[in-house]
Design goal:
Blueprint (H helix, E strand, L loop, with lengths): L11 E9 L4 H12 L3 E3 L24 E8 L16 E9 L6 H12 L7 E7 L3 H7 L6 E4 L4 H33 L6 H5 L4 H25 L3 H18 L2 H18 L6 H20 L12 H19 L6 H14 L6 H17 L3 H16 L4 H14 L33 H7 L5 H18 L2 H15 L5 H16 L6 E2 L6 E6 L4 E2 L2 E3 L19 E2 L14 E4 L5 E9 L5 E9 L5 E4 L1 E5 L3 E11 L3 E4 L2 E6 L2 E6 H12 L7 H4 L12 E4 L6 E5 L6 E4 L3 E10 L7 E8 L5 E3 L2 H6 L8 E9 L5 H14 L12 E8 L19 E7 L2 E4 L3 E11 L2 E2 L18 H12 L10 E11 L5 E9 L8 E2 L5 E4 L3 E3 L3 E8 L25 H25 L1 E7 L3 E4 L3 H8 L3 H5 L4 E7 L16 E2 L3 E10 L5 E10 L14 E4 L5 E5 L4 E10 L3 E12 L3 H6 L9 E4 L3 E6 L3
Parallel strand pairs: 1-3, 1-4, 4-5, 5-6, 7-20, 12-21, 23-30, 32-50, 42-50
Antiparallel strand pairs: 2-3, 8-13, 9-11, 10-29, 13-17, 14-16, 14-19, 15-17, 18-21, 19-20, 22-24, 24-27, 25-28, 26-27, 28-29, 31-33, 33-38, 34-36, 34-37, 34-39, 35-36, 39-40, 41-43, 43-47, 44-46, 44-48, 45-47, 48-49, 48-50
């Protein structure tokens, strides 16, 4: 049997790849990987090397879509006795790999290659590829072009192209040789035999039958060569003939081979159209193949040679085909399992051990492909047992490697092959969310008691193979896992035997060897003999002024030896130790086995290196436990994590993690583990103690806080603003020299005024001193969950409001620190760093009641039609300041809120609609104001930053009523289009590469877009007032952000070009009444001009065009039915518009028919810069930037 067989194997040409001379292993692997990329050669690519000496027997050769497939065998393969039966088993080409720098003598390399080729008598093509030759080798190698092919030194891509050309030449040579063989076989015939024929009796009847079968076998072989030549249609024809002849002569073995080849030809012919019908056809035909291989079995030959291997190979080929279809059709798994089970049963009759080995390997691989990991592991064990039957070191090593692959399925894998669990990873800060919790799914996946016997067998086999292979570390690991996990099922003599195996393996290991798999004893955390404190401690960074930024607190609960008189509560998750002072940790050891256990050393494991642990030795009698004290000294300030203990036992150093034992004990409590090792040793039940993270700090100041006016909850409506006062007192023994206020928790933006300067002005705050801090609060918006939680708790307690405040109130964080240890230098001679700081957590007790609510916000647009007239007003940002009266100022104020100019052009006015609701029992007055940057106007409020705030008339909303407010957004549009909006992300890039700048640009453009939306929202204020003392501001951030998400660029940015039309006729022109002062007469030449304004800060060169359409939208200027004549130029007008200025173009129109017309100006910008491309939302530098102006209406009156 052969490994890795499939239906497509029949169409693959086998090529032996041999190293010639001295070739380093890494270089050989690199060259061989290049060959593997050229396993398929299209027929269309070999036409330049192919020569048709006579009419090709491959009449249906698919030159356009066909291909020739190669199968490269590194090192070659011995000849097969079945080469006549299956031509694809022949080595048809030999390629030698010569590395010229390692083999300078090319003559000897050619002789060595020629000698190696003699072992492959069936090879039709022989080539020796010499890589990286020097100049002298290039000259010498040119004389040996018949066999030697030189690859001059080049980059990897060039070598790959050169190799592809050589492989195309080999494919063409093989194709021509196939043609010669087929023509010879068809004309003269050939004698084809198999080991079945050679073993048969040579009676006269058998000789006569062999002559009749010769023709059918020849047709089958010709079909094989057609497949190898990449012509599946020709192969199918010859296979059909061979099937008929084999059926007539009863040659079942060759009938099965021909049928197998016909299925391969069918798949090759329809390789891109595989469907369910084809899959059913393949299954049917391969079942016939298996049946006819079974029919060819001859009882007399059963002990010498049997077709059983071909029957099993056919079964594996069908199973592999169904596995590839299984990825798309999951219902095929049952058929695959049946085929593999049948193959496994048939493997019992195989004579050759190597055949059984290959069979079980393939069955295991296929079971793994369809996800049957435990079946795959079972057959992998069969492979390992076959290896163990061979009494040599290499076979034992192979068995050990195969068994190592099964350990994951059997849940006995070594920790070295497992990903690091979260509790073993080094962490800069502790994670308290999962501390003290046992994950049930982790326990179930690691411990399965019903697999105990099988798991023990697997570990014993690994131990045996490791001992035979001479791998003491693998043997020690297997014995450690076996003893630690299954000690209750092992008798005392067996336990002693495993202990001896551990000691014997350790003797063969160097001193200090570490293993990832712990043995004995079992170690669990018992307690920490320290006392708690009530303040968070933050590490200070001496290199940063804001030392609190980015630092995580040590947790809500702290242990410290300074606290006295408090009970020992080991359930808390944080410890504080002092540098240079000894600390102690209590751990419990258990030895549940029947022998004395000597622990050479055990000490606390600290990965950070800031802790000196003191090792001790322990003796544990059989079936006993002991609580011991492990000690050490912290050596530096910072966090310390103790995941477990380091144990030196049985001659090997291992790490024992507390978390593993906690999971083990939980599994024992739930019946998932065989037993509890501590209960077996008589130890009392101990609740789980999670491993804390430890911080090392010096003495620090202590701040105590309270709210003036009482500690009760403050009742506020949503959005209400109120002042409160907080008192801070230093109750510590050291002064507070540094302090900073920050926010945490939910609704941080509800604190709108924080007294940073007040706190800094009283520093240093001496012991016993007090400071009062004023705060301004703004009540936040309540969410649906707040109402649900509040309603549920209110029903239980009978109160409202306070029940849901704790989940959503903001928290005031005050980070503070005392004086430095060394005033002149940050680090002293002893190595001590700045003392850490502390954090005061002050939750603000606020109860928020439902108030004025924003139901939704949406963006509305309005189009203003434009009319052509004589007037062309100035742009809206060019207002001349003049002296105004109060009435004019009010009109100007209204004009700034909504600007409508019907002669500027048809542009979209955008409004932000806010729908407000009052669900309370009080009345609210709503005021909307907009903050704009610009000059100050009369009667308008001016902010401290120089911006002007425009207010709307107030809206009154009674209880249980709603109202809508419109906010025009036109005055937010920027007057000039420049790179300040698009290119801000490039200002700090420096000389980075273009690809990196592009990636940053994509991220920062989105960030700038969100920043622009936030900036726009921050300038819109919706304020309310209820009564005299209650006032606030409505939160509209999220709703407005959603409404503006897709249209913010259109709101903020102007078009690069704006277009306008106006009439330029004299005032003496005849008109028809006052209503027609902006109208045009028919049959009259009307002079006009188009005005183009450049809204950017750079010169724009463009090509301008003007079109005119009637009410039906038809072009009135061009075409056979044009109704408008013109004078001047309307298309292809080249213009250059200076920055922030206008340019004019004059023309005249002559309207033949009265009616309504529309003029539209459009321009194509030439040499657009990055700003214009960004505004047009295009990234291609070759894509033209097209700007189209708004339509302008022209009313043409008839001449009466």
């Amino acid at each position: 049997m052969e490994p890795d067989v499939s239906i497509e194997t029949s169409c693959m040409i086998r090529i032996a790849v041999l190293p010639v001379g001295t070739v380093p292993a890494s270089v050989l692997r690199d060259y061989f990987s290049m060959f593997l990329r050229h396993h398929t050669i299209p027929l269309a690519a070999i036409s330049s090397f192919y020569t048709e000496h006579q009419k090709s027997p491959f009449a249906q050769q698919p030159w356009d879509a066909g291909s020739i497939r190669f199968k490269f065998l590194l090192g070659g393969a011995p000849p097969s006795p079945w080469e006549d039966f299956q031509s694809n088993r022949k080595i048809l080409a030999v390629i030698g790999i010569c590395h010229c720098p390692s083999t300078p003598d090319l003559d000897s390399a050619v002789e060595q290659f020629a000698a190696a080729c003699k072992s492959y008598s069936s090879a039709l093509v022989q080539r020796c590829f010499a890589f990286c030759p020097c100049d002298s080798q290039l000259e010498d190698g040119g004389k040996k072009e018949d066999v030697l092919r030189l690859f001059p030194p080049a980059d990897h891509q060039t070598l790959d192209i050169h190799l592809q050309t050589m492989m195309q030449e080999i494919a063409a040579s093989l194709l021509m040789d196939f043609e010669k063989w087929v023509l010879k076989a068809e004309s003269a015939g050939t004698i084809l035999k198999t080991p079945l024929d050679s073993q048969a009796s040579l009676s006269s009847e058998e000789v006569l039958k062999a002559k009749k079968r010769r023709l059918g076998r020849a047709q089958k072989t010709i079909g094989d060569y057609c497949l190898l030549a990449g012509s599946p249609v020709d192969a199918s024809a010859h296979y059909t003939t061979a099937l008929e002849l084999a059926r007539l002569t009863g040659d079942f073995f060759w009938f099965a081979g021909a049928l197998e080849g016909s299925v391969c030809a069918l798949l090759m012919d329809r390789v891109s159209h595989i469907d369910a019908v084809l899959e059913d056809e393949v299954k049917y035909q391969y079942n016939n193949v298996i049946l006819h291989y079974r029919k060819s079995f001859i009882q007399d030959n059963a002990q010498r040679v049997s077709p059983l291997s071909f029957e099993l190979e056919a079964t594996l080929k069908l199973a592999r085909f169904l596995c590839s279809s299984y990825l798309c059709r999951r219902n095929l798994s049952k058929e695959v399992v049946e085929l593999l089970t049948s193959a496994a049963d048939g493997g019992k009759s195989l004579i050759d051990v190597n055949d059984r080995l290959v069979l079980f390997v393939e069955i295991a691989r296929l079971f793994g492909t369809i996800g049957y990991q435990r079946k795959a592991a079972f057959f992998s064990r069969q492979v390992a047992q076959l290896y163990l039957q061979q009494d040599n070191k290499f076979a034992a090593t192979s068995a050990m490697q195969v068994l190592a692959m099964t350990t994951k399925a059997y849940r006995v894998q070594s920790k070295a092959s497992m990903p690091d669990p979260p509790h073993t990873k080094k962490q800069t800060g502790p994670s308290h969310t999962d501390s003290g919790k046992m994950h049930h799914h982790l326990v179930v996946s690691l411990f399965e008691s019903q697999w105990s016997t099988l798991q023990m067998v697997v570990l014993r086999e690994i131990l045996l193979s490791a001992v035979r292979a001479g791998d003491p570390l693998a043997a020690w690991s297997a014995a450690a896992r076996l003893l630690r996990q299954y000690y209750p099922l092992i008798t005392p003599p067996g336990q002693n035997g495993l202990a001896s195996a551990l000691n014997n393996s350790a003797e063969r290991l160097p001193s200090g060897t570490r293993s990832a798999d712990p043995a004995l004893p079992f170690v669990r955390l018992h307690s920490f003999p320290l006392h708690p404190s009530q303040m968070d401690i933050i590490k200070r960074s001496p290199t940063k002024e804001d030392w609190w930024a980015g630092s995580a607190p040590s947790g809500p609960f702290i242990y410290t030896p300074f606290s006295k008189g408090e009970p020992n509560d080991t359930s808390k998750q944080e410890l504080v130790w002092i540098v240079g002072e000894p600390v102690q940790v209590l751990v419990e050891l258990a030895n549940p086995c029947g022998f004395d256990l000597r622990v050479d050393s055990i000490y606390l494991t600290v990965h950070s290196g800031s802790f000196d642990a003191f090792p001790i030795s322990v003796d544990l009698p059989p079936n006993s436990s002991k609580v011991i004290t492990l000690s050490g000294i912290p050596t530096s300030v910072g966090p310390i994590t103790i995941p477990g203990c380091t144990v030196h036992c049985f001659g090997v150093i291992t790490e024992h993690h507390f978390k593993d034992v906690d999971n083990l004990l939980l599994g024992a409590a739930q019946g998932l583990v065989l037993s509890d090792p501590f209960r077996c040793c008589g130890s009392a039940k101990l609740r789980n103690i999670s491993v804390p993270s430890i911080s090392v700090v010096p003495p620090l100041p202590l701040l105590v806080s309270h709210v003036l006016g009482g500690d009760g909850a403050i009742m506020l409506y949503e959005g209400e603003i109120r002042d409160i006062w907080v008192s801070l007192s230093n109750a510590g023994t050291a002064p507070v020299e540094q302090a900073h206020i920050s926010l945490s928790g939910k609704n941080q933006d509800s604190i709108i005024s924080i007294p940073y300067e007040t706190l800094k002005s009283v520093l240093p705050l001496k012991p016993g001193a007090e400071v009062i801090l004023p705060l301004t609060l703004k009540a936040w918006q309540l969410g649906p969950m707040d109402f649900e939680i509040g309603g549920g708790r209110a029903a239980a307690s009978g109160s409202t409001g306070r029940q849901f405040k704790d989940a959503s109130v903001p928290t005031l964080l005050i980070h503070y620190a005392g004086p430095s240890t060394d005033s002149g230098d940050v680090t002293s001679a002893t190595g001590s760093t700045l003392p850490p700081g502390r954090r005061l957590v002050l939750p603000l007790q606020v109860c928020v009641l439902p108030g004025m609510s924003l139901i939704k916000a949406r963006l509305l647009s309005m189009e203003i039609p434009a009319h052509i007239g004589k007037a062309h007003p100035k742009p809206m940002h060019e207002d001349d300041p003049t002296t105004e009266t109060v009435e004019e100022s009010e009109r100007k104020m209204e004009k700034r809120l909504v600007k409508i100019d019907p002669y500027r052009g048809s542009w979209g006015l955008r409004f932000l609609e806010l729908e407000l609701s009052n669900p309370t029992d009080v009345v609210f007055e709503i005021g909307v104001s907009v903050q704009l940057d610009g000059t100050d106007d009369n009667n308008l409020s001016t902010n401290q930053d120089g911006s002007t705030e425009y207010g709307y008339p107030k809206t009154r909303i009674d209880r249980d009523y709603s109202a809508r407010v419109l906010v025009p957004l036109e005055h937010f549009k920027l007057p000039v289009l420049d790179d300040s909006f698009f290119m801000r992300d490039f200002c700090n890039e420096g000389s980075t590469s273009s690809s990196r700048s592009s990636s940053f640009s994509e991220k920062n453009t989105k960030a700038e877009l969100n920043a622009s939306i936030k900036s726009l929202i921050s300038r819109i204020k919706v304020r309310w007032q209820s009564g005299r003392n209650s006032s606030g501001e409505l939160n509209i951030k999220d709703a407005v952000h959603t409404a503006l998400q897709t249209s913010v660029m259109d709101v903020l940015l102007p078009d690069p070009l704006t277009f306008g039309f106006r009439l330029t006729r004299d005032n003496s022109s005849p008109q028809q009444g006052s209503d027609s002062k902006d109208s045009v007469l028919a049959n009259d030449m009307t002079p006009m001009e188009v005005l183009v304004r450049n809204n950017t800060k750079e010169m724009i060169k463009m090509s301008l065009g003007i079109s005119c359409r009637d009410v039906a939208g038809e072009n009135c200027i061009e075409g056979e039915k044009s109704t408008v004549l013109w004078a001047g130029v309307l298309n292809g007008i080249t213009m250059e518009v200076p920055p922030l200025q206008e340019s004019k173009h004059t023309f005249s129109l002559y309207f033949l028919v009265p009616g309504e017309y529309t003029l539209v100006a459009a321009a194509v910008i030439e040499d657009a810069n990055d700003v214009l491309r960004a505004r047009a939302k295009t990234d291609s530098p070759d894509e033209p930037i097209y700007c189209r102006g708004p339509p302008f209406h022209v009313r043409v009156l008839g001449t009466a």
